[in-house]
Amino acid sequence: MMGEKISVVIPVRNEASVIRVAERNFLNQDYNGFDVEIYFVDNKSDDKTADAINRIKHPSIKLIRIPERGKALALKIAAKEIDNDIIINSDVDLIFKREDTIKTLYNTLRQDNSIEAVGVNFERKYEKDGFLSNLVNKTFADMMKKKKKTSIGGLYAIRKEHIFAIPDNGINDDLYLTAYLNGKFKILQNLFVEHYEPSNLKEFIQSRVRIEAGRYQLKEEYNFNLNDRFQDKEKIIDSLKLEDMLGLPLLAGIFFYSKIKGKIMYSLDKEAHKFPVSESSRESLIRKTIAQNPD
């Protein structure tokens, strides 16, 4: 007997090395009472991503290959294949801490008609990679531990109609949805997934520049001021530990630089969303997953 269906979309590009992570994440979830369909959307990869997905022999796994780059496009194409009114969107490089993560997201949105999306909180991880990188990552991780997550991103359930509102040229679809939904979403602060930050300082800065370029695009092209649309603006400096005070000026400098560089990158290069992904965070994830789940 067919049950109610949960539909998951995972956009991927050149992610052959971490498909194994996603496979374990999603196939080890508790879907009791539900059918599930999991769409991997291969976003013009030029590595073995599609081959890695095709090696997963499971009836719930489906592969869509698209000829163009763009996460928004990947989400929209998958959404057209899905009959469900609710879609779970996930990054490929997360580690779930609970077996009911997906079911909890789906049920929370299904049962609450006052909201349009439901997200999770991040437990930020990093691997040691030099004094300055460690200092920045530790300070940032300690800041985020005390700050309530206020934006959609990484893993969330959303009503399908809103997928089609994401602009194809968006630099950061997560920031766009946060602003677009205008507070009509819920973050489950106690539902954590692990997310590896770039351990390499250069990659950390690149990721911040991309975020700031996305913020600037929201303001310039869509008249969204993301800061005004955050659900919570609590101060977090007081939460830092004494040893973090050394890293705080460096982190503040990176944020300041990222704002300036993000604006410049947006102004000069409308392809800013093609910044490279973090190799160091990906390798950290692979090592941990293999260590915890030996074949």
Walk me through what this model shows.
Helices cover 42% and strands 20% of the residues. It has 295 residues and is α/β, with parallel strands linked by helices. The protein has a single domain (4-285), classed as Spore Coat Polysaccharide Biosynthesis Protein SpsA, Chain A, CATH 3.90.550. α2 (49-54) links the parallel β2 and β3. The longest helix is centred in the last third of the chain and has 22 residues, at 201-222. It is globular and about 55 Å long. The model is unreliable at 229-235 and 271-277 (pLDDT under 50).
Number of helices: 10
What structural class do you assign from the helix and strand content? alpha/beta
Give the termini distance in whole angstroms: 33 Å
Looking at the structure, what is the overall shape? Answer: globular
For the sheet with most strands, the description reads:
8 strands, mixed
**Percent range of helical residues:** 40-55%
Residues in β-strands, percent: 15-25%
Task: State the strand order across the main sheet.
Answer: 3-2-1-4-7-6-8-5
> How many domains?
1
Please tell me how large the radius of gyration is. Answer: 19 Å
User: What's the name of the CATH homologous superfamily?
Assistant: Spore Coat Polysaccharide Biosynthesis Protein SpsA, Chain A
Indicate the low-confidence ranges by residue numbers.
Answer: 229-235, 271-277
CATH third-tier fold name: Spore Coat Polysaccharide Biosynthesis Protein SpsA, Chain A
- Please identify the top-level CATH class: Alpha Beta
The CATH architecture assignment turns out to be Alpha-Beta Complex
